[in-house]
Amino acid sequence: TFKANDYVSSWDVSTRVNASAGQVICERAVYGGGRTWAHDSIGVTSPAAVWYLAEGCTEGDFETFVLVQNPADTPAVVGIAFQTDKGEVAPDDLKAVSIPARSRKTFKANDYVSSWDVSTRVNASAGQVICERAVYGGNRTWAHDSIGYAP
Fold it and tell me: 117, 24, 127: which is closest to 64 by C-alpha?
């Protein structure tokens, strides 16, 4: 177990694990609120150009975050669109977002849509990325997280 806080301090942290010998299995756990809540996700084995995140909610006290990692040595460019019960929302400022090499950006869906039913599509027009979605509720008394689906 490696505690990321011992190595970096940032709101936008992602991790790349390279095994120099043998194979490993990785997951990530996040704890908050004095360890009153947590969420966990398996790792992704490879980046992709298209990601689907099927769940999310931005109504009530729900917060939904889309997390995009660029593990490559060159910048990636992504477009993010939200699907809601009223149709797709593709904000202009999310149509071509640059993700610097070896970095991560966080996008709060609540800043763009208000819906009980939110899903997300991330398309990389340059490079390939890794995506996951985190949902918090109950004034951040609980949370859950999932990697996306890359067809």
Answer: 117
Candidates 70, 9, 10, 54; CA nearest to 150 is: 54
Task: Give the mean pLDDT of 36-43.
Answer: 80
Contact between 122 and 50 under an 8 Å Cβ cutoff? The reply is yes
- Section 110-138 average pLDDT: 96
Per DSSP (E only), the strands in the chain are: 27-32, 37-42, 50-53, 63-70, 76-84, 87-89, 97-99, 103-108, 118-126, 130-137, 142-147
Taking residue 68's Cβ as centre, other Cβ atoms within 10 Å add up to 24
Mean pLDDT within 6-25: 82
pLDDT score, position 133: 95
> What is d(CA 20, CA 117) in angstroms, rounded to the nearest whole number?
42
Q: Which residues pair with 136 in a beta bridge?
A: 63, 143
Distance of CA 107 to the CA centre of its chain: 8
Q: Which residue has the higher pLDDT, 28 or 79?
A: 79
One-letter amino acid at 13 equals: V
Q: Which of the two residues, 40 and 80, has the higher pLDDT score?
A: 80
